[in-house]
Specification:
By secondary structure, the chain is an alpha/beta fold. The protein is built from 8 helices and 5 strands, in the order ααβαβαβααααββ. Helix 4 packs parallel to helix 8 and helix 5 packs across helix 6.
């Protein structure tokens, strides 16, 4: 087994750290004292959507949670603990739920919904991935995609997923509590889609506490 790719990362880290120190000698010393990001990014695990790179951000700018197909399940303790910590301890001001075009998770859910509609008789395998994506598959099954081309259907699935996960975030305890408390820092929830072919982020939806 080759370890070349790992060594490449370690070498790149050394070069990056040296460059940062040259530009800002006390950057790492300051970073070690704490964090105060204003944004929580909840995104997909896809390697083509690295939040710090595509937003030209620095370490300390973005609090991050990523998973397959940028899901936010209301029974997912991992996502809920990140959101709770971000809102109640870190003090973030914005939550951004970020999907992306050509999402493999979205495509898999679209295919699973199509197979179920065709009644192929082949059951979905019971794996961690299929269990994780089951709410997303159900969401796809609720959509009318009959008039859509394959690319249009996938785009609609990606966009609907983003809006649904934003709704879930807005219905979660950390957000409802923050919005109900007049003394709490106000948190805005955004739904974005990153276009892989354009390298651009488009905002689909924005939700905030009602006055």
């Amino acid at each position: 087994m080759s370890h070349e790719s790992i060594q490449t990362l370690l070498n790149a880290n050394e070069e990056w750290a040296q460059n940062v120190i040259q530009g800002t000698p006390d950057f790492f010393a300051q970073s070690a004292t704490g964090q105060s990001p204003k944004i929580l990014w909840i995104g997909c695990s896809d390697s083509r959507v690295p939040e710090s790179v595509i937003t030209a951000s620095k370490p300390g700018d973005i609090f991050v949670h990523r998973n397959i197909a940028n899901q936010f399940h209301l029974n997912d303790d991992s996502a809920l603990s990140v959101l709770t910590y971000a809102v109640k301890v870190v003090g973030i001001e914005h939550v951004v739920l970020v999907g992306h075009t050509n999402c493999g998770g979205a495509a898999a859910c679209l295919k699973a919904a199509e197979d179920a509609a065709a009644d192929t008789g082949a059951p979905q395998p019971d794996t961690p991935l299929t269990r994780w994506l089951s709410p997303f598959i159900a969401l796809v099954q609720s959509l009318d995609l009959s008039a859509c081309s394959a690319s249009e259907a996938l785009d609609k699935v990606v966009q609907t997923n983003v809006i649904t996960q934003v709704d879930n975030i807005c219905n979660s305890e950390p957000i409802t509590t923050a919005w109900a408390d007049p003394n709490a820092k106000k948190v805005t929830v955004h739904g974005w889609v990153y276009d892989l072919a354009r390298g651009r982020i488009d905002e689909l939806v924005l939700r905030e506490a009602q006055a």
